[in-house]
Amino acid sequence: MPFVPVLHAEWIKIRTLRSLLGCLAAVLVVTVAFSAVAAAEPDRSDPLFSVFFGVSLGQVAAVAFGALAVAGEYRGGALRLTLAAVPDRTRWFAAKAVAVALPVLAVGLLTGLVTLAVGRATVGESGPGWAEGLRGAVGCALYLTLMALLAAGLAAVLRSGVGTLGLLIPFLLIVSFVVGDLDSGAADHLPDRAGQLALHSTSAGPLGPWSGLAVTALWTAAALGAGAWCVRRRDA
Q1: Residue 85 burial by Cβ neighbours in a 10 Å radius (0-12, 13-18, 19+)
Q2: Taking the C-alpha atoms of 197, 110, 51 and 128 in order, what is their torsion angle to the nearest 10 degrees?
Q3: CA nearest neighbour of 175 among 163, 160, 159, 192
Q4: What distance in Å separates the CA atoms of residue 139 and residue 236, rounded to the nearest whole number?
Q5: DSSP state letter for 17
Q6: pTM (2 decimals)?
Q7: Which tens digits make up the pLDDT trace of 29-74?
Q8: Contact 213/146 with Cβ under 8 angstroms?
Q9: For residues 79 and 20, what is the distance between their CA atoms, to the nearest angstrom?
């Protein structure tokens, strides 16, 4: 089967599952809500991150979306039916990754723009300029997309949405900050800390906004590569 029909089939799966649509909605709602709260008392040293603070929590919904979109294939023998229709496992996994990435990218960009508008309305003249803010909005979309794909790749390795979320969510909310307190140099290259540099006005470390996203992209590529290898090698 050609790639486009496979992609269309995967998109149908995503848009017909309420749990996945709920995750996408949560990305927008959680990010904007917590960003608005943080912007009410802005950090003058980093006004951009004050506006986009909610991404730190909104990413949990993006991770859940990526993990559940892939893990659902391993429940009830669904993957066997999928592979009966699409015997080329690499093509199927590529289509699944694209089907995960596109809606998160779209919602992430909308989230970034709404968050920027709300943040600037809240902080007024002390907020980031439009040029810096738009960079943050684009960075927000790219970062959320990369984190969703990282979760999708890990879910293909673990074959479990619960296992993936049980590993990633504590890492994002706890472990990354602990490592950062112990060794900021190492923490700068963790996927979440590196990617979120796009949401900061300045960086004291060796990475900048785009190089930080590049580091996150490398983590994501490794997770997707491992996921693709597992899909090809394991029984359905």
Answers
A1: exposed
A2: 80
A3: 192
A4: 36
A5: -
A6: 0.93
A7: 999 999 988 887 766 678 888 899 999 999 999 999 999 999 999 8
A8: yes
A9: 18
